[in-house]
Amino acid sequence: MMDGMKDKIKDLTALLNLHNYNYYVLSEPTVSDFDFDMLLEELQKLEKQFPQYALSNSPTTRVGGGISKNFKTVSHRYPMLSLSNSYSKEDIADFEKRAQKLVDGDIEFVCELKYDGCAIGLTYKDGMLDQALTRGDGSKGEEVTANVRTIRTIPLQLHGDYPKEFEIRGEIYFPLEKFAALNHQRKANNEPTFMNPRNTASGTLKLHDSAVVAQRGLDCYLYSLHGEGLPFKSHFEGLNAAGTWGFKVPQEEKQFVKRTNSIEGIMAFIDYWDLERHHLPFEIDGIVIKVNSYDKQQELGFTAKSPRWAIAYKFKAERIATKLLSITYQVGRTGAITPVANLSPVLLAGTTVKRASLHNADQIEKLDLRVGDWVYVEKGGEIIPKVIGVDMDQRSEDSIPTKYASNCPECDTVLHRNEGEAQHYCPNDIGCPPQIIGKMEHFISRKAMDIDGLGAETVAQLYEAGLISNVADIYELTKDQLLPLERMAEKSADNLIYGVAASKTIPFETVLFGIGIRYVGETVAKKIAQHFKTMDSLVLASYEELIEVDEIGDRIASSIIDFFHLEENRVLIDRLIEHGLQFKIDEEHLNGMTDKY
Ligand code: IVH
After folding, report:
1. Which of 8, 10, 72, 114 is catalytic?
2. CATH number at residue 387
3. CB count, 10 Å around CB of 274?
4. How far is the CA of 396 from the centre of ligand 1 (A)?
5. What's the predicted TM-score (pTM) here?
6. How many domains are there within the chain?
7. What is the pLDDT of residues 480-530, one digit of tens each?
8. What is the pLDDT of residues 162-178, one digit of tens each?
């Protein structure tokens, strides 16, 4: 009976994996969604009853649910290099000529899309997904296997004639439709929306809760194989074989990949996709051209950073002219002022642009930007479009030179600008609302205190309700205060209180980062914690003692001194100490084991 169950679980696992492949990779489902769900439910039940028989490649693992606090850093077996980039067709022609000169015989090239996402290396052992590593610094990456398992087009179990052990690399990306749906939902929940699919894909891969990753609908195209003694002679042959094992590889019939022997063939591919890319269901930022034969690739070899047998052609940033309606100023959590150009809405590279960043006062002066001007806006690889120039021919005679803001738009305090710095800032850090809220948002954020159950929206809500106005207040919130708030159910209130209490174990260096002293980022906070070991000795440290610390110069030392000089800040720290936060370095962090969680 028990053995029967073992077989049943095994068969169901294999059947569901096959259905998954037919549905997600081939887009040719052979069962109805209902039947699939029924089978999955049956498997889930059996696995619960007989956990000893559950297989690691089970499709039930795709729904996620495990919480990983730590992403292990793991060395890449083969370094993850990058491609040399070019923006001109001349560069591509040079690449082709050079390659032809360096190797004997006619070269066949493979042209592919340059998917705009996050690189991933997947290791398979005996046909099963064993490990997924991000690119990291190219020699070491972060192990994100639990999250990658939730991506439906990445097979957990291969079929066909696959090698015993190998690595396959590709790009994880956010399909545009899924990205739009996510932002739509976030808007409805009053949560901040995400800027672009690429950053959101890599951010999603590093979420701690794989169940959330599972819901987001990431996808992946694979583009290279690595291993010892792989039985292929060319890149294209390898890719196609990977397709037969269950991977999503570019389809020739959709022109996602093309082989060609000529520069004309390469250029035709570039021209086709330069236009057609706007109709793809995902973003690409260029195309990649690779020498097909593995022998020829080896002959061409590598430079220190990239292969000589491949090159990326990046599409040019698109630009358009539109009218500058007004310049407004945003205040960040540290009081830094960012000027923003409000534009007459225009469609640029598929999205409507209404705003662009102007960086700082110098930038406005350099461009001699004036309200009413026709300006050129460009969208490159960056998230926020940039204003890159003014069409002087269209400037009206009565236009007035821009006078940069002298007072804070939020609290009217006179703005400061330190010598040698580009940015203006509002010095009223304890009375300026966006700074107060921004500081608290920073404090609770994932990289800092990582308070579960408390998000940026709730912080703003609590501030507006008069319940919190600094980070110490967060530790004094009670359930009775929370319950009357809008959208605050009993469970959310409990979660918030619990999350706040749990944050008291967060290590000193992270608390130090979370407090938000100007210029004290993650790395500096670590160095300070290692050096001074306790908050008490940091508070007492003199300027001279501070600049002795590695990586701390005048700017940071002065900022720390200024921070503790303020009575309000000292009171704040005392209150946090009373609430039991960590203000002493613990053993683990003292020994330099400062792995990020
Ligand atoms: S091949 C030696 N093929 O572009 C590097 N990369 O700088 C071999 N990318 O982050 C990479 N689409 O993740 C290759 N079809 C494609 C690609 C591709 C996107 C990414 C890759 C890396 C960057 C290369």
Report:
1. 114
2. 2.40.50.140
3. 14
4. 47
5. 0.59
6. 5
7. 999 999 889 999 999 999 999 999 999 999 999 999 998 898 889 999 999
8. 999 999 999 999 999 99
